[in-house]
Design brief:
- This protein is of the alpha+beta class.
- Helix content is 41%, strand content 16%.
- It has nine helices and nine strands.
- Helix 1 packs across helix 2 and helix 2 packs across helix 4.
- It is elongated.
- The N and C termini lie far apart (47 Å).
């Protein structure tokens, strides 16, 4: 069995929170379009399409392996849903701590990135994190982050930066959707402990960051959740574009 595939399956089931069955699991992991996924926001979890390069049979074989070992269980309702068990959660924790499948917060190199910036800069998720951390480090008055979802992985990475900001008296505010998932609640508490003002907005879907009302980021990446998906972000560094963005977001 491939450990990385097992981890993705366990994470997917955990984040789907009992909303999918065995067949829905592999469809979600392969990134198939589904009205149900859209209705419940499952197309926005990081595992959506994470195993698009893996065959259906391979995903199902790994799923059945986890079911046989008590890591996953299937309900007995008319539409049986698949859920992670306590055994599965413990195994997931062990595997995430294993260097071969580690997804803990990365260390981002931010010194002297070889990127030429203009007033409107478009980048992928790799360059975004380098530039965004630099922007945070230069903040002087305020930081606003609009991110519908959170993950412990990404929050852990950002906590040192956010704590540094709040300790300098810079106001940091995060607009997110309210959650009942234990792993997300823990991430939210970490944000609050770092001095971040968390504001719940259940219909929020913008992916925006505004720094000192002079630099703005907008695009497809959920700043407080992103793990490894391919994204596009745009950096605005001129007053005209920033004002236009501020005019349409409700913060």
């Amino acid at each position: 069995m491939n450990d990385l595939i097992l981890v993705k399956i366990l994470l997917c089931v955990n984040n789907a929170d009992g909303l999918i069955g065995r067949s829905g699991l592999y469809k979600l992991l392969q990134g198939e379009n589904s009205k149900k996924f859209m209705r419940y926001g499952l197309d926005h979890i990081d595992e959506f399409g994470a195993l698009s390069h893996i065959s259906k049979s391979e995903i199902l074989n790994h799923t059945d392996y986890l079911i046989e070992r008590g890591c996953l269980q299937i309900g007995t309702l008319l539409f049986p849903m698949i859920q992670i068990t306590d055994t599965g959660k413990k195994r997931l924790d062990r595997m995430l701590n294993n260097a071969t499948v580690r997804t803990e917060a990365p260390q981002i190199e931010i010194e002297n990135p070889k990127i030429e910036l203009d007033d409107l800069h478009v980048c992928n998720e790799t360059d975004f994190w380098k530039l965004f951390i630099m922007d945070l480090d230069k903040a002087r008055s305020s930081v606003v982050i609009m991110s519908a979802f959170v993950s412990e992985y990404r929050v852990n990475m950002l906590i040192p930066c956010l704590e540094g900001l709040t300790s300098r008296g810079i106001g940091v505010k995060a607009y997110i959707r309210e959650s009942k998932k234990e792993i997300e609640l823990e991430a939210i508490e970490k944000l609050k402990s770092a001095g971040v003002e968390v504001v719940f907005k259940n219909r929020i879907h913008q992916k925006v960051a505004i720094i000192d009302n002079s630099i703005a980021w907008s695009g497809s990446l959920n700043i407080l959740q992103h793990i490894n998906s391919n994204e596009l972000m745009i950096r605005y560094n001129d007053s005209e574009h920033v004002k236009k963005l501020l005019a349409v977001v409700w913060v």
